[in-house]
Amino acid sequence: MLRSLRFRLPALFLAAIALAFLVATLIALGLFQDYTRTETLNELRREARGLAQLYSESAVRVSDEGKAVPTFAAASLEAATGDRIFYVGLTAFPGGEDTGLTRLTPADVGADLSGSRIRTFEFTPPGEERELLAASYPLRPGGPNTPPFGAIVVAKPQTELRDAWVTLISRLAFAFLVGLAVVGALSWYLSRRITGPVLALSKAADQIAEGRYDVKVPDVPSGDEISHLADRFGQMAARLAEAEELERNFLMSVSHELRTPLTAIRGHVAALREGVVTDPDLAEESLTIVAEEADRLGRLVGDVLDLAKLDAHRFTVLTEEVDMERLCERAYSTFTDEARRRGIEYERSAADAPVIVTDGDRVLQVISNLLSNAFRWTPDGGRIDLALDARNGSVTVDVADSGPGIAAEEQERIFRPFWSRDGRGTGLGLPIARELALALGGRIELDSEVGRGSRFRLVLPARRVV
Question: Does residue 257 lie within any of the structural domains?
Answer without folding.
Answer: yes
